[in-house]
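Input chain follows. Return structure tokens only.
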Amino acid sequence: MVDALAGRIRTCRAQMPALTPLAVDPDLEAITASLDGEALFIRNELHQCRGFRKLHLETARLGLGLQILHCVFFPDPRFDLPIFGADIVASPAGISAAIVDLSPVTTTLPASVQEPLARIELPAFEQVRELPAWGTIFSPFVRFIRPVNSTEEGWFVDLVGQYLDVLRQAVETTAPDAPDAPSTIERHQGQLSYCLQQKRNDKTRRVLEKAFSVEWADRYIEELLFDNPPAP
């Protein structure tokens, strides 16, 4: 499922307008370490496009078992666009968590996103998971599930593709506001809040600290995973 979702995200990413690679430090692009005696490998892919300052796709593998996919698309605050996020945690026992959302950076989603999202027919997932305490950043359309079989895994991958199609269409029709417009400043502040909330996920920090160091984990989270948006 991790490979299937990564492939779907790359396909959808390639359709985003004005897509270009984004520079990343070589020591953060392909990372190897050891955790509990098993090899840890992390790969990061960074791009930017019209309307988005950063498209980040991270895939990780620990030994022959645990696999993680983490993907976030951060909008340029000048554009009234949401933050796209998708994550999967997989092990030989199955998929323990799969989440996807188009998260508002202010109080509500733009109509260009909310209306088509409301029309999507949601699959009947058997196991819907409870959001974490910091999950107030998500939209009403967030889907956080534990797929019970390969059919549900396929449903989830297709759902992510539908969310990304909605996002691409919004990108193509949304015009930017001025850098000093109140709406731009409000979205910049909203994205700062989103990043702050994500940094409260202690599970990610603990794993990185154990595999590398406290200093390295701080750098990885602050500079790559949830870097603050530059001032508009």
